[in-house]
Amino acid sequence: MSKLFTAEIIENRPAAKDIHLIKLHLPRHAMNPEPGQFYMLQVGLHNDPLLKRPFCMFDSGAHELAILVKRVGRGTAILTGKLPGSFVDVLGPLGTPYPRVEKEPLIISGGMGMASVYSLIKKYGKGCRVIYGAGSREGLISLDNIREMAGEVAVTTDDGSEGTRGNVMDKIGEYANKGSVVYACGPEIMLMKVSRYCVEHEIECYVSLEQNMACGIGSCVGCVVKTLEGYKRVCKEGPVFRADEIVWD
Amino acid sequence: MRTEVVIGKMKMKNPVMTASGTFGYGNEYAEFFDLSKLGAINVKGISLEPMEGNPSPRICETPCGMINSIGLQNVGLEAFIREKLSYLRKFRTNIVVNVLGNTVEEYIRICERLDEEEIDAIELNVSCPNVKKGGISFGVDEYQLAGLLKDVRRSVKNKTLIVKLSPNVTDIRVFAKVAEEEGSDAISLINTITAMSIDINTRRPKIANLIGGLSGPAIKPIAVRMVWEAFNAVKIPIIGMGGIMNHEDALEFILAGASAVAIGTANFVDPESTMKVVEGIGSYMADNDIMDVNTIIGGLEK
After folding, report:
1. Which of A71, A94, A117 is the last residue before a domain boundary?
2. What is the pTM of this model?
3. Which H or E run contains B88?
4. Residue of chain A with shortest Cα separation from B26
5. Which CATH number does the domain housing residue A169 bear?
């Protein structure tokens, strides 16, 4: 079963400022991605843009894959402008998912981190708690759904427009303990702070990292992160890593 | 229809191989197609000792291309022979091992070892800095290149010796001739072109090492020109590469004088690229009544 296929865009709508929710119709064999895995999408035609772009599985259903796309450059501008009915070349699912751990899941998301952990919240449902941070209320994607799915949700915003004014680190002490397993995705600075907190308090923690990628299958060795065992590939050994193995600069 | 080409002692069932550093050690691609269908597999460059590579970011995209500075991360010679080579030998194709060194002695030690192993060819990456000569790379100084090849040629007795030329020189013909005069069986060109890209918002370089190598379709016309120049300067076979994305690109290189072609960056864009090039060359030959691919090598009409 090849991981390489062509998929039709069946929905493309704004989900927040500069962020689109894109749904793709997938062939059967490409289904069943695990939370934390990602797909590479070819957004350009005729070598421009050249490389595929990686996107986490946000949600999946029967023959459907949803991704969250933030416009950050030319590739994502082209992708968010594509109309339903158009086709894209896709490679996936790729990468190592969030591992299942027999502890109480605490899921921490900052901003676009929801693109990766939404499916994890869906998987654990009432069995998990969530700390969800963003710059402001407009950046909180699918908050109503998350409140409905998860056991408990703490919201933080930098400007106080929703939930507690501040960031996820203001809530972590209240929610995380030695019986927890923390899964986190968000800006690098947030992941660094969450990791350091968890290492210091002996809490098992996994973070999903982002890096420029060329191939997505482990061949180019372009997307590495520094770990205690040397450089590892975000696309292959990751994107989910144990927090205590990452060497933060 | 004959698609077989010969590079030194190496017989390739078709003129398509992979470019070093773009195909790992093969295993990542085996789930996409049967690697035995390739003319040859060229593996990621191997050094005497394992190399950790450069910090991130290591790659960035540029118009119709990418810059990389991986820093030659690899498992090292002994681990390659022990762990990677036996896997690659399962496929009925030629294995080319790209080798790198920081001194002439390092190149010699790797070549002597590989000359006794079950491989088909050694490709010298001469774009590495010569640490004993102030860090200038072997491949951009014709005298250093000649010196290196004299010694290496003596250590490579059983295998085909290929020299991969750097395009970062004033006249590629000079270096092609040095390779031929010093007994190289073939030359491959071009390696990446040194390049740089800057994020104007952060004012930082887009790759941590500042300078990297540009590859992809952006460099193809330069590569075709250099293959043509080298073809007119030497008689040894040429492996052409630089931005080949499909069989049309590959055929341009063959018409310019390449006896074989290597697919590089395209492996990152589409893991089945090499297969599509093999099939595309076959269709082109059928459509144009070409019975033997060798008859169109250097077949540019002027």
Report:
1. A94
2. 0.95
3. helix B85-88
4. A219
5. 3.40.50.80
Residues B164-194 have pLDDT tens digits of: 999 999 999 999 999 999 999 999 999 999 9
Give the three-class secondary structure for A249. coil
Q: In this complex, do A220 and B268 lie within 8 Å of one another by their Cβ atoms?
A: yes
Question: Residue A111: which pLDDT band, with cuts at 50, 70 and 90?
Answer: very high
Q: Is residue A113 located within the same domain as residue A210?
A: yes
ipTM of the complex: 0.93
Measured distance CA(A158)–CA(B172) in Å, rounded: 57
Domain assignment of residue A150, given as a range = 104-245
Number of domains in chain A: 2
Whether the upstream peptide bond of residue A49 has omega within 30° of 0, thus cis, is yes
- Nearest one of B275, B269, B278, B265 to B22, comparing CA atoms: B265
Q: Which of B128, B134, B131 is nearest to B71 (CA)?
A: B128
The C-alpha of B146 sits at a distance from chain A's nearest C-alpha, in angstroms, of 31
Nearest to B268 among A2, A51, A224 (CB): A51
DSSP helix/strand/coil, B242: coil
For residue A99, tell me if it sits in a domain: no
CB A97 within 8 A of CB A120: no
Token duo for residue A66: 């949803």
Query: In Å, how far is A193's CA from the nearest CA of chain B?
Result: 20
DSSP code of residue B83: I
State whether residue A163 is helix, strand or coil. coil
How do residues B4-43 score in pLDDT, each as one tens digit? 999 999 999 999 999 999 999 999 999 999 999 999 999 9
A110 and A136 together in one domain:
yes
Domains and CATH numbers, chain B: 5-53+71-192+217-296 (3.20.20.70)
Q: Is B128 a catalytic residue?
A: yes
Is A139 found in the same domain as A89? no
CATH number assigned to the domain comprising residue A47: 2.40.30.10
Report the alpha-carbon distance of residue B267 to residue B219 in Å, rounded. 16
Which tens digit of pLDDT belongs to each residue from A142-187?
999 999 999 999 999 999 999 999 999 999 999 999 999 999 999 9
Residue A23 to residue A13: CA distance in whole angstroms: 9
Residue A121 tokens, joined = 């919240």
